[in-house]
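**Folding the chain**
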Amino acid sequence: MLRAIAQLVPNADYLFFGDTARLPYGAKSQEFVARYTSAAARFLQQRGIDVLVIGCNTASALALYDVKSAVNVPVLGVIEPGADAAAAVSHSREALVFATEATCASHAYQRALARRGFATHEKACPLLVPLVEEGWVESPVTEQVARIYTIEALRTASANVDVLVLGCTHYPLLRPLLRRVVPQRIQIVDSGEATARALLKYLDGHNLTAGTPTYRFFVTDSVEKFQHQAPVFLGFAADNVERADLDAGRS
């Protein structure tokens, strides 16, 4: 997500929070996701953010309204921008959504796309996140897993499907692989890219961009592990990384 945003909005100051101690959120309960996403949002607000982007699809699906209640800055999720992007390219108004188990169970994309006239087929792809975390973005194993998920998803859909929404922050790293697996008639939409465009529109309208970009990273687990993985996810090295404890002060 940050990679897509930084490419479109290079002249801004960024504070990134990764709850690396508890990821992936995709198999967690709504109460769990809402609690820790709201805590992360308050942590960032205390450090002076002007706008908050929830980059995690599961957190956007399960905790958007909790986060909006927890902070007093504008909050953008990824579901609505992703649905807008699908609507912009689809002719048939029938979509597939690949997402985590929790995002699919919430039916957040299904509702958002239904408001735009879509029939939607959601497919949970739980194995893709650990494969990406392992760095196997071009592995034959990952391609076979993605192929199986695609075949299973298309069995429940009609031949009219013409767009696939990538409803997880990790999945865009698999886009070249997915392009080989998914039928060519189906366009692939990255909800992260769509959210970056929505953020750019907001920032331009509120004059919030800076001159020289800065980056601060906060993680809840190993700083070293995050720095090792950062070039894969971000496209650049993460130098200014601090460990944060969301449980500090909790009884």
